[in-house]
Amino acid sequence: MTSTSPLVAHGQPTEYFTFVSLSSLGVPHATTTKHCPGVSSFAEPIVPEAPKPPFRSEATAVLGATGLEMSRVSYARQVHGADVARVPAGGGFAGLVDVLVTVERGVPLAIFTADCLAIVLYDPSARALCVAHVGWRGTVRGATQTAVRAIRDVGARPGSLRAAIAPSIGPCCYEVDEPVTAELARAFGDRWRAWVAPSRGGHVMLDLWSANEALLVEAGVAPESIENPRLCTACHPDLLYSYRRGNRGRLVTVAAVP
Ligand SMILES: [Zn+2]
Question: Which domains does the chain have, with CATH numbers?
Answer without folding.
Answer: 8-170+208-255 (3.60.140.10)
